[in-house]
Each structure stands twice: as C-alpha cells, then as structure tokens.
Amino acid sequence: MQMQFPKDFLWGGATAANQYEGGWDEGGRGPSIDDVFTGGSVNTARRITIPPEADAFYPNHEATDFYHHWKEDIALFAEMGFKVYRMSISWSRIFPNGDDAQPNEEGLAFYDAVFDELAKYGIEPLVTLSHYENPLHLTTEYGGWKNRALIDHFVRYADTVLRRYRGKVRRWLTFNEINMLSVPFGSFIAGGMLPETCTAQDRWDAMHNQLVASARAVRLAHEIDPENQMGCMIAYMCVYPRTCSPEDQLTQLSVDRLHNLLAGDVHVRGAYPSYAERLLAEEGVTLKVSEQDAADLRAGTVDFYTFSYYDSRCVGTAQEGDPSTGNGALGGLRNPYLQATEWGWQIDPKGLRWVLNHLYDRYQIPLMVVENGLGAMDEVAPDGRIHDPYRIDYLRQHIESMREAITDGVDLIGYTPWGCIDLVSASTGEMRKRYGMIYVDKHDDGTGDLSRHRKDSFYWYQKVIATNGSDLND
C-alpha cells in the first residue's frame, strides 16, 4: 500500500529576504546584520565588518534582486504551479532600526504589492517574520537577542505586519531555524550577537528570548485574526549513533534532544521539557524563566510545525579514520553509507522519512517541510540551457520519502524546496552554491545581468506539481 499526496497538498518553494530580496538601502530600509556580512567560500569564512568596508564585497546588498524583479519572479513561480510561496519580511524594511516609534510606510507598501501579486495567481504566502535578519541597530545598540529588550521590539514589529496584512496572509512562521542558537554558528545570523564575545549562556538566553517573543506573537496573531495559523521553524539536523554501542546510543539521544527537539518542544508543548535542565547544565547554562515567561510560553503554542531538512550525520565515538561531515553547523561524523554534495553535505533522503515519523509521533500536529534542496555548481550549456539532473534526483528521492511518510500516517501538509530561485548561500556567502530551479545570472564577484533562466528542474517540478506528486520521472 502506498498513499498519494493529499489533494490540497501545498507544493511551492522557499526564499528569504536577506538572501534574495536585495534593495538593501532603498525604499527607506535600514541596514540589517546581513548587510555587514562579506562574501566567502567553502574554504574562506565570511567576515562581519561594522561598519562596512569600502573594498569588501557584500553579496546580500543586491542578492538576486527580488526587490526589482518581483513581478517577473512571481510569474515564474506561478508557471511552475506553486500553491504556496514561503518568503520572509525584512524587519529593517518595516522598522529601519528595529526600535523605531513608527513603521516605514514605503516598506509596508512593497509587501502589500507582493502579496497582491501572489493572490492574482492564486499563490498563498507563507511568511516568516524573522529569517536570519535583524536590524543592525539592535546588534550595535542592544547586543542582539541576549538582551530581553528585543522581545518588545519584535512583538511591536509582529503586531504591525499582522494587522497590516490581515486577510492577505493566513500562515506565518515566527523565527527561522530558531534552534541554530544551540550552536556557535547561530550566534550572529540567528541571534545578532558578535561571535567573538558570545558565550553559550548568551546563545541560550537569546533562544529563550526568541521563544518568549514567538509565543507572544502567536497569541497576538490569534487575537488579531482567528483565521491565522502560526507555525515554528526548526533546522532538523538529523543524527544517527555512529555504532550500536550503548554510549553512542545515549550520545545520539542527548544531541537530538538538545539541538533538534528542545526548541520544538517549547513551541508545541508550551514549556521546557524535563530533560532540558540537565542538558543545559552540561553546557554550562542556566536559564532564568520568570512566571510571566512560563505563562507566555503556555499561551503561545503553535498550530503547525515546519522544519528544514538537508542532510544527516553520525555522532558518538569516532572510529579510526572517520572524517567529519562538511556541514559545520552541528558537525558530526561522516556516514560511510551516504554520498555527499560538493560542499560535503551528506545526501540522505530516507532520513527525511525517519524525521517525519519521529516528529509526528512526538507532536501530533500538521508538519511541513519548508526547506530542502541541493546546493551545486550549475553550468550554462552552450545552447543556453541549464541541465541539473543531480538536483532532480535529489528532490525526487526526498519527495518519495515524504510519500512514504504519508503512507506511514504522518500529517504532512506541504513542501517548499529551498531556494526555488538562485540566491546567496547563508553559510558561505556564495552564488556558485546554487539551489534554485530558476537560474539567476549573478556570480561570486558581483557580476551578472540578473536575468532569469529556467533549469531542467523547473520543468520537472512543474510536472510534479501538476500531477500532485504522482509523476516523478524525468
């Protein structure tokens, strides 16, 4: 027996303003933390420069310029057949400094136009309020999310956009990959905190503040419009025990709980789980959860759960010669049974079925895969076409695993592959690490005419959507 995708399954794609929108100093927008993040590569780390340096390259300033190509891009999404488009609002386009008394009307009007254009094509927006982008002022003046003052600033921003776009947007996500604050990688991009001075205590304080802010925004959204559906977003960094030794099994349990499950447990269940105190103490962290915080968390549980899934890794006792994975966010050991991308991320479609079952057994609320994809160096052929059979194969295998999970009984409501159009890589700041089904002529040195071109995967995904996932052939 194999189930098919539900008739109302939400097929689409995903982007984020900081990596895609551009227009960094236009329309009244203020600088964000991404605007002081230089380009980099798999071998060269991105640098944070406050203020920006005159001779440095900042790829997020223009990104792939949705700000000036939004009508063209939405038409391409509609041509693919999107039912839903996951995007984010740039906080600093609405409140340039993050703590402004009044919002920027020009920024609000821009998203009005975007949502109206999506509605013209019958595409539902799924909007992330904060996707790795905080106004830079909240870093330089407040120190980022370790400062509880940001809770009120975020809630004011959320209140503004929830009221402005009432009826235009029904599904919202609060913080993108909030659990990235459990690892040093998330200090700046997720928490707006300078890595050189950020401690483990700072990161977990920041996550706690975001969880409280999220809960308050969820409750506010339900009050503003009972039709609003509010979701969380977790980076699910799938982990397996390296061996069958009991020690490795317990290591896997602890890593999965601390880095993958803890934030989701708070979002869905409304309280810190029983294991949190011990695991945080082992990290040298003690959280101060006030009575009001606890009440906010209880009252602000999410309606659905979304997550990103790219790869997996092993944890436990390293065997002789075991290399580490290429994905440095969580680290881990390479799985000898899996192949890897050019950036060392291990390709594990069957792991997605395991994660979906793991999460649905735990939470029993609707799930959505809102990021999944393959970063690769696509080449334009002499005839102008972009052949990406490797991407088609990656997506096909993951969609097959989603169908298996649905057959297992998982309530999976949608799928938005990451970077449906080429954009700047968050981890490396590269353009050559392309995820899109739409190629954008933009390169790591900033050159390119920003023209859009359909890859082979564009036509393949168009057919997948048209057949509701029943035809996955090339």
UniProtKB/TrEMBL annotation:
What are the entry keywords? Answer: Glycosidase, Hydrolase
Q: Which Gene3D superfamilies match?
A: Glycosidases
Q: Which GO terms describe its biological process?
A: carbohydrate catabolic process
Range of residues in the leader sequence: none
Q: Which GO terms describe its cellular component?
A: cytosol
Q: Which InterPro entries match?
A: GH, GH_1_N_CS, Glyco_hydro_1
Q: State the superkingdom.
A: Bacteria
Q: Which GO terms describe its molecular function?
A: beta-glucosidase activity
Can you tell me which family this protein belongs to? Answer: Belongs to the glycosyl hydrolase 1 family.
PANTHER family named among the record's database cross-references: 6-PHOSPHO-BETA-GLUCOSIDASE, GLYCOSYL HYDROLASE
Its name, as the record gives it, is: 6-phospho-beta-glucosidase
Organism annotation: Butyricicoccus pullicaecorum 1.2
